[in-house]
Amino acid sequence: MAEKSQPSANYSTWPVILALTIVSAPLVLMYVYLFIDTITDTAVGSLIPESFTLRHWRFLWETPAGKPNIWLVTLNTLIFATSVTTVIVLVSSMAGYVLSRLNVPGRGFFLAGVMVLHAFPSVTLIIAIFIVLQMIGLYNSLIGVILVKAAIDLPLGIWLMKGFYDTVPWEIEMAGVVDGASRFRVWRSLVLPQVRPGIMAVGLFSFLTAWSEFILPQVLAPGSKVQVLSVYLSALIADDNNFDFGTFKAVGVFYIIPVLIVYALFHKYLMNIYGGGSKG
Amino acid sequence: MRILLDNFSKSFGATKVIENMTLEVGHGEMLALLGPSGCGKSTTLFAICGIHRPTGGRILFGDRDVTDLPSQARNIGVVFQSYALYPHMTVAENIGFPLKVKGMATADIRKEVDRISGLVHIGNLLGRRPAELSGGQQQRVALARALVRKPDVLLLDEPLANLDAKLRLEMRSEIRRIQRETGITAILVTHDQVEAMSMCDRIAIMKEGEIVQIATPAEMYSDPRTAFVAGFLGNPPITFLRGVMANGVFSIPDSEIRVPLPASVAAAEGAKLMLGVRPEHFTPTGDIAVPGKVMFAETQGRENLYDVRLNGGPLLRSIQPVRHDVNIDDAVTWAIDSRNVLVFDDDGRRL
Fold first, then answer.
1. Cα→Cα distances B59→A97, B66, B220, Å
2. How confident is the model at residue A9 (pLDDT cuts 50, 70, 90)?
3. Any CB–CB contact under 8 A between B82 and chain A?
């Protein structure tokens, strides 16, 4: 799973490492400059920074006129991402079990339908969703966009969880049932622990995609009270009157830090996502 | 507790697996359901434990009709072929799970787990997880979990199939010992005739959803009702000679082989017959000498096994104490013990 593979003794690895370094250098350089630009001032046309400054990070302690407070926006993003994750994990861990194990009428049809939904680009639905949200009064609210985002990402979660449940042996459930446990208890205390890697993977995946979601909040919840970071960021670059590339970059760095932290801590669970299943 | 299957039937969709089967297992008895794969023995087991719902008939535990009761309400212990231990729990938690579900107090669960793990000799493993156990130890844990809540009946589904040969021998006698000590009624599902014969009080041989014969292992070996039963029991297996009744004796056309039949066998002149000869009844000491050529010889350490092709084509198997004077392609004249042959008609029914 996450073990580092031993370098093979059959050939030396430095040419491979060299080639990979050359290929990835531009990417790394871009990120390095992204960060350097946020804490320095550079003359136009020059590559070498001239002076250190924290000017670009001002947005953290000052709220510019006409812009929402950054911490409110961050809180909104956090609420948005965790709520979407919670909904997706809750629903897909149950729906995946039902579709994997129970004899639901129209199961095949349902699975195929879920798959089609997953293949549907969400942009094509956005006008319809906008109208629906406006009619039921959830336009410009976090709840509305949370529900929409969760609904659009659910098919993938359900399919992934179904795949994980499919690998849990039937005998474990049979044993639980003859041991006297109810079907719900069997699911809760015997089967669910077997699919923990799946739940971790689906949860992380949902969190990361929700964190970076832009188009849905932009269209469905643009108001300054419910803004999320991606919308805030795009408003910065769209603002022609106070164009400030340094701040834009600083907000960008601020925006990806949580993603990097989450990824660094949990990437091995994310690797499981298409692995499906657990070894006891 | 006595188990009774009364006219039990089970079908999956249009496929009838078992039709009108009646089977009684006595109190404290260990019964084997023996048969080739697909004969319906596991279906029967799963119906008894309530995982499959019967399509017809009744299932009784003692006087209690459990036909419509769900598994949870039946009080049974099951050992699955794969053991089905809960991987995320320790051995003690695994064994205690049925009691925990019942809502028993933690201290009482501990006491019961200690008692039962002593019985199956795993007292020192209680803190481990299933992945850290050997196959035989997992098997013992599965047994302990099945027995811990004092079930009315213990069901064993191919419990030894995943063990290596030496462990299988050990667990065979262990399971039997534990069954005897607890006095529990047990049903063993297996396709291995050695397991069935060595572990059980009685064997029910199944074929295509029907019970062909129920008897004690010894009876069934010496007195099989059909050629199928005779062929299923015994290792190395029995061999059959095909022939006809001619002049009051069994004879194989186009050969010299004539075998007088036991007086109890009534067969019409000219009837087609099958003569079953077990390997231990074709040796140098029998009474009907038949010549042949050794096609195959195998030494098993204590005994040698020979395949002998008789003049005229048919094959007989012989098992004898080890000897070094007979090799492949040697011509031999060994003899059939005519008092111990089993005679079947053309359809495989014993005469």
1. 31, 6, 26
2. low
3. yes
B25 burial type by CB count under 10 A (0-12 exposed, 13-18 middle, 19+ buried): buried
Pairwise CB contact (< 8 Å): B51 & A174: yes
A5 burial via Cβ count (<10 Å: 0-12, 13-18, 19+): exposed
Q: Give A53 to chain B, closest Cα distance, Å.
A: 53
Which residue among A171, A185, A279 places its CB closest to the CB of B84?
A: A171
Residues 6+ apart with CB under 8 A from B210: B18, B19, B21
All structural domains of chain B, each given as residue ranges with its CATH number in brackets, are: 3-226 (3.40.50.300), 239-345 (2.40.50.140)
pLDDT at A278: 41
Q: Strand B303-310's sheet: what is its strand order?
A: B282-283, B331-336, B288-299, B303-310, B315-321
Chain B from 247 to 276: CB within 8 A of any A CB:
none
What percentage of chain B has pLDDT greater than the value 90? 54
How far, in Å, CA of B204 to CA of B3, rounded? 14
Cis before B314 (ω within 30) = no
Judged by CB atoms closer than 8 Å, whether chains meet at A179 and B84 is answered as no
pLDDT given for residue B45 in this prediction: 92
Nearest to A261 by CA among A199, A206, A208: A208
* Tens of pLDDT, residues A193-205: 999 889 998 999 9
* Interface membership of B105 toward A (CB under 8 Å): no
For residue A94, the number of C-alpha atoms closer than 13 Å in the C-beta half-sphere is 8
Which residues of chain B register pLDDT less than 50?
none
* CATH top-level class of A65-274: mainly alpha
The shortest C-alpha distance from B85 to chain A (Å) reads 7
Give SS3 for B292: strand
ipTM score for this prediction:
0.81
Q: B242 touching A, CB under 8 A?
A: no
User: CA dist A88 to A194, B51, B235, Å?
Assistant: 18, 32, 58
Q: Does A172 touch chain B (CB under 8 A)?
A: yes
CATH 1.10.3720.10 residue ranges of chain A are 65-274
Contacts of A56 (CB under 8 A, 6+ apart): A37, A38, A39, A244, A246, A247, A249, A250
Of A169, A171, A181, the CB nearest to B72: A181
Beta partners for residue B43, in sequence order: none
